[in-house]
Amino acid sequence: MQQGGPSSPSCSSTSDCFLLNHLRTAECGSETSAEAEKHEVRANNSPRDPSRMRSIMLFYICYLLCLSLGLACVVCVCVWSRQWRGGFAWDGSALQFNWHPVLMVTGLVVVYGIGAVLYRVPLTWGQNKLPWKLLHAALMLIALVLSIVGLLAVFDFHNTNHTPNLYSLHSWIGIAATALFAIQWVVGVAGFLLPCSPTSLRKLLKPVHVWMGGSILLLSIIACISGINEKLFFVLKGTANGTQPYAKLPPEALLGNSLGVLIVAFGLVVLKILSNHKWQRPDSRPQDMAYTPLLQEENE
């Protein structure tokens, strides 16, 4: 009479038994290696990992540089408009035109660029994404409103002084950047913030949204640089108004050229942050690669 208990598979020959034991060993080995790989991935994702900490430090250096360059751009364009162009007004005079460079640089470049890199800030990765989506949309809306007011300032100035609108390459690029920005914002809100937006649509829109964001920033930088150069050519003619010609590089020309360099530097830093895959927000990962908020203890 046989005793009950777990039965083991029978072997018809010694070679069969050897093959079965070999397969069992291989299965155990693969499970062990998978566990080891899993622990290795977790270790590599640890906030205390040296390479990861270096990446975090490099990000914050670039981020602080981005903020510093953005502030320098705003200060520089305000000083130019105030110190050399006479200040600000809204009366159809040249003082009204001065709002145009200030608002376009501040809105279409600086606020736009800071809003674009918001998702890359590591301290936001371990938190609910919805508040950061709302902040991103709010910053972009502020940038869009500033840009539209800046356009209204120059159009009203031109109309009051009977100056043609949209005749220069600078104006074409600026209008194109602002129009694409408006479309981008509306589509972004509809696709990523409305609850009725399907997940499939969001997955389809995301790469287009990212690409369009970088393209709009490039167009904005080109528009600002061409506008600065155009303005300097107009006002620095060396005529009876007492100004030196642009070719002699007077202090106002130095300031205007420096502003252009700062805008380019700001744009390059923003594009560097956006293009680095290591600084992308880890929206979804397998359970064995679950993200732990940076500089915080693991919750497991």
Automatic annotation (TrEMBL):
Membrane topology recorded in Swiss-Prot or TrEMBL: Multi-pass membrane protein
UniProt superkingdom: Eukaryota
Transmembrane segments: 58-82, 102-122, 134-155, 175-196, 208-228, 254-275
GO MF terms, alphabetically ordered: metal ion binding; transmembrane ascorbate ferrireductase activity
Entry's Gene Ontology cellular component terms: late endosome membrane; lysosomal membrane
PROSITE patterns for this protein: CYTOCHROME_B561
Principal EC category: translocase
Protein name listed in UniProt: Lysosomal membrane ascorbate-dependent ferrireductase CYB561A3
